[in-house]
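Hey everyone, long-time lurker, first post.

I ran two proteins through the pipeline my lab uses and got sequence/structure pairs for each. Pasting them in order. The first:
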Amino acid sequence: MSSDDVITGEAPDRYAAALLELADSAKSLTRVEKDLKAVAQAFDVSPELKRMAASPVHATEDKVAAMTAIAKKVGASTLVQQFVGTVAANRRAADLPDIIKSFQAKLALRRGSQIAKVTSAKALTAAEKTQIKNTLKAVTGQTVTMETEVDPDLLGGFVVKLGSRVFDASLKTKLDDLRLALKSA
């Protein structure tokens, strides 16, 4: 792994930590959290935005203007608008979704909880969500906020990502493991 990889991997955490401190100092953690969710949603619904942010073809100034305009359009506070502009000016516009995820994780930890991403083969019922949330709370000893996603490719079961830990109870993984075991036998 090159030193560039290390720097790239650490950048979202550094930016998120800086924004967390700024938001805390300004006593606007809740507002910044809400604003960042809106910016993240803009990235989620627009593949063109992701491509533009990652493209070396677009000038940095254009990226700054675009990112700031998007933050303004979603109604973000001045702090978030300036932050998004600074990130783009530092040639990290493509890292914004990762910075936002890191910010959310750091804020959750500060509040004494963790964020778990649960991907399932089909939409989870309210009872299943409650059961998973309670199990994760018992394992971690902390309140858990769940983000759910559906991926039919899992065939059945679910995958839980909690921090750096992954629990994979998907049928797809079990079938892949069985296939591998049969090949080596």
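...and the second, right after it:
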Amino acid sequence: MASTKFPLTVTLLRTSARGFAAVAASRATFAPSDGVKASGDYAMWHAHYETLILELAAAIDDGNEEQFADKVEWTRDALNARGLDSDVLKTALEELCAVLKESLPSQAWPPLVSFFDAASKRLDQQPAPSEDDLVGKDDLDVLARDFLSTLEGGHSAKAVALVVDAIRMDRISTKDVLVGVLPRALEYIGRQWHLGAATVAEEHIATQAAGRLIEQIMLMSPEPVANGRTAIMTMVEGDNHDIGVRIVAAFFELDGWKTICLGANSPANDLANITQHFEADLVLIGATLNTQREAVRRSIKAVREVCPNQAIIVGGAAFTNLEGCAEDLGANAQALNPEHALQLGQEIVAG
């Protein structure tokens, strides 16, 4: 990922996102008389607009028009699932485009044209039919589906025991649960929420059960031989997803590392202080959303201010399909998954 070709545009979008969103939201008074369903209130549109502006900035920073189109498509599908007509989002996108064209300096506006065009074209396409990708594909899918089905009945302890028993009976390995069953189950419930087929509460139940399962796996695993190395891992400030980083922590702990998992939403300065206090050999920073990569950059900068030579690995969904992202952010490497993170950590510390 190279540095943006349009630094002024990206900077203005990021620093003024709330203000631009406020102007656009004040105009978002789409009513049933427009031939579409009611579109919600000011607060809802302010939040949507701010997210879209930050996503637009990230996409321009990456030089990837389809990235912004993907986000717009994701938003359309989520709104459709909640009874809001697609035409509303298209009108809202046109309004946002008009606001930014009016508000930005003339030299900052041109880069946005192709991104809005790509998003508009995507909205003109019919949504792809959703598929249930946990329907009997392999043993991992079956166990993930059984885990979720048990949770649907309100039996969290039973769902955890179901997977633990499979490990004890050698039907599945600990690694397969960590990198196969849990990610598939949580990705599935996340998609179900996106499509309006699951509630936030149901997603939280699944997340809590996943956390309990990780704890049980660690308790039943043989005590690893300590290797004398310390790794600190966290999700970046503003990111409230913690299961992925807890899975990474499990891999490092099972390999004999002293692991300090800070979980979700760690402020940059706190991460820097903890790193310095424990004299960590390695720091791993995760992020889920494209818009959170700038927070990752700030966290890396904070760590390096107190530990200039600190080994740092980044990872998470925010870095999918981005080459050269680690260097651009100031990290040593970019991990593709928990196993890759451990491999990179071993190589960096040994080298």
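Reply from user beta_strand_b:
Welcome! Quick read of the second one: Confidence is low (pLDDT under 50) at residues 31-38. Residues 42-62 form the longest helix (21 residues).
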